[in-house]
Amino acid sequence: MQPKKKAILLSLCVSILLMLAKFVAYFITQSNAILTDALESIVNVLASGFAFYSIYLATLPKDTNHPYGHGKVEFFSAFLEGALISIAGVIIIFKSGYDLVFFKPIFQLFQGAIIIGATGVVNLLVGYYLISIGKQHRSITLEADGKHLLTDAITSAGLVIGVLLIQLTQIFWLDSLISIILGFYIIYNGYLLTRRSVGGLMDESNTELVKDIISILQKYRRDPWVDIHNLRAQQYGADLHIDCHVTMPYYYNLNQVHQEISDLDRIINGEATHKTELFIHTDPCLPDCCNYCKMQNCAVRVHPFIQEIEWTINNATKNQKHFDQ
User: Fold this and answer.
1) What are the strands of the beta sheet with 227-236, ordered from one edge?
2) Which of 34, 41, 53 lies closest to 16 in space, CA to CA?
3) N or C: fewer beta carbons within 10 Å in the chain?
4) CB-based burial of residue 252 (10 Å sphere; 0-12 exposed, 13-18 middle, 19+ buried)?
5) Does the pLDDT at position 176 exceed 60?
6) Is the domain covering 3-201 a CATH 1.20.1510.10 domain?
7) CATH number corresponding to 207-324
């Protein structure tokens, strides 16, 4: 089984076990704060189940209907997880607000705190594991699920402190107040997940990723690559797709151009952190390019070389040759 599938399957199994443990803690305590944690665990199970399915889809090979692969389903999975988290937070706030007005007794808080504390430790360990595997295999689904579990662990830690405080002070209305505070925290984390996933679904530019690609190109720059412009990057799951225009000497034949493009492809895939598919359009150089072209012994040079123009996110992403800027 692939590492990503193994990781998300582990998350699903752990989420089910921890959900049952938290509901046991709620039934013996009748605590709203503990119910908050238990309800969020239902979200964990639903999210992990869909995440498992989305990772299965993301690993399918490209086909006629999906020429870029199925990787974008991971953004949808992260969106669903964020939405479910936010909905759970809203329900928790309304439920706790009601119980803050119409108080009900709570029991055996110490035993409940022990159960919740144990589930928090497990979520912390599994969460870090999922984030590690997610970064290693470029999976936003695993990273989202891992961050969700870390959020759950933080929530559990706050919950344990709150429950022990209630036990010590015997101020029982704190139970609903703590639950409301945790509800807002859960909604905030749900918003962060949905924000990132919507950005991916809308092909929002990943500035840091584009900067990394440009810095690699600048580092291994060759004289025939007169300039690079109109560079765009899109991420589909673990894969990266880049298209750009490369200006080359107009007198290069097709074999020479093909060799340069192949070398550029090899450099990107050797240095970048993502498996990358490149679509490169080549432009012929013009006389105005001579001022920043470093081709040695160029027989058709019209103007002397003045200085190299460093490639940056400002000039490499614009749809124009550098002499137009």
Assistant:
1) 227-236, 239-248, 275-284
2) 41
3) N
4) middle
5) yes
6) yes
7) 3.30.70.1350
